[in-house]
Amino acid sequence: MIRLYKSPTAILNNLHEIREGTYNTARCFQADCDDLMTFNQALSAANLSTKQRRILYMYYIEELNQSEIAYILETSQPNVSMILSRGVRAIKQVYKNWERKELNECT
After folding, report:
1. Class in CATH terms, 8-106
2. 41-98: per-residue pLDDT in tens?
3. Locate the RNA polymerase sigma-70 region domain: which residues (predicted)?
4. Model-level pTM?
5. Burial 24-56, CB ≥16 within 10 A → b, else e
């Protein structure tokens, strides 16, 4: 399949560096800005719950591990893992829908 967007997983993995500007300068600043804006739109379109957003923030921005998040939120690590996975899956689905729509418009 043709990829029109950078993988949301790759963006999530580099989100802290992109936001802090501490990333490798070999990467393109403009492309990172575009990726971040697109990601923020996908985040809104994914209709995540407050808890999903909070866990995504704690995991990818604050760089806490799942056990630390579970302790803070007074829940179990498997529950944090499930919520995190569902949140990432919802964001990925937004990207897939956008790509499908854009590819259909091209044909």
Report:
1. mainly alpha
2. 989 999 999 999 999 999 988 899 999 999 999 999 999 999 999 999 999 999 889 8
3. 47-92
4. 0.75
5. eeeeeeeebeebeebbeebbeebebeeebebbb
